[in-house]
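LOG
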Amino acid sequence: MKFYKKIEDIDPRLRFLICFFYSIFVAIEKDFSLFFYYLLLPFFLLPFINEFKKFLKGFFSVNFFIFLCWLFLPFSIPGKVIFKILKFNITYEGIKYTFLMTIKANLIFITNYILIFSSHPVRIVHALQHLYIPQKLINLLFFTIRYIPVIENEKNKIERAMRLRCFKPETDLHTYKTIGNFVGQIILRSYERSKRIYKAMVLRCFSGIFWVYYHFKWSKKDTYILISAIIYFSIIFYLKWNRL
């Protein structure tokens, strides 16, 4: 918990900017020799993981998708053939591209998870508002974050009702109709709830802006981290520029 508080003490706006520039640098990188420098930031952030089980769950989810890419991309990208499996050719370019994608996805996931997604969702939206993201997008994100648990609760109620009626999914017409009704009920209840929320907001004279009581404060520690981040990205940019 001690490490988590240290991460939370860093201004969320600064954490967003670091993740934004880091993700861009990593995403456009094609030189394998520079990934040693990109590894420094995630390596430094690893001790700050608070909920390790939740981190592993997200990590395995990302890499499961990448594993599926390994099953197809090495066969799909044309280039120098390394070996064949039946009638399929595995190319050097395909393996290189997939390996590069694997490294990039994991580096971006680790950095964004620790710096951003370990925070409360409302703080994330608040930080985006301070970074002058369009207000309509901010409102959309806020309502999405706020009402996903509400819709999930409605889904759980319907699932409990189905279990009480001894519903067992099978490959028959009754199951397909039941699942269709299940999805329709979720959509209908979400729509009805959205109308009630809209009427409540109209009664409260909602003007399109969510006013917040607590505002972020910039500290000396944030200044030191900002300077360190500028030096870090400047070194990477210098090394990348010299290799062009």
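LOG (cont.) second protein
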Amino acid sequence: MPNDGATPPTRPAPPQGLPPIERLTAIMARLRAPDGCPWDREQTHQSLRRYLEEEAAELIDAIDQSDDDAMRDELGDVLLQVVFHAQLAAERDAFTLDDVATAIADKLVRRHPHVFSDATAAHAGDVEAIWQAVKDTERAQPRGPLDGVPASLSPLTRAHEVTRKAARTGFDWPNLDGVLAKLDEETAELREAIATDDPNRIEDELGDLLFVLVNLARKLDLRAADALRRATTKFETRFLRSLEILAQDGVDPTTATLERIDVAWDQAKAEQRGQ
């Protein structure tokens, strides 16, 4: 019977009195019910993909800012994505959230025999070796040396993982000197490509240079993506402060000389380093 607007429709109250994870799962199931939320009911694994990417990025921002309140909230948003995907899978009898939790718990036990069995590991490097050895035994069929690197990773992260796996086969420079020499070589080749004004060649050489920089970061036990993220944040801070400095002096950055902009930049840089 249609509602005439005189009285609101009776709806079930949100689940209460359950352990937090069970309550969250029950709420998600209610949202996906036939009389639940139209938006939630329309979602698929594929449509939710971008939200998982966005929530993970927001969590990383909170971690970088050491903001515990934001981390709590963003972890909740990431957890929601896990629960949402598990609900979709449960509806087609593929797996449940309990199956997801059981699978990762069992994996952690298997891959930590130095904690739950009789293997030994004195250092983090030993743990990585054990993890990889156990992981290899779990595979039904042998896999190639570069298998397991998702194509959807960001380019810098994927390059890091590909080179890390390649290095396990011995396909690597023995020390930093080799990487630095390659960096000089690729820089020279990029200069030559720029001189040709050939966009395809320039793109190829620029890619080669970036790839060597990823290797350099890996050899330094760093990640190029993290270094670039940090550099971008540093630039943002200095850039915005430079604009403030110019504005305080009544200078329009679009018409200011490069020398005047450099003065503002150096001041912003000095202030940032003094913090």
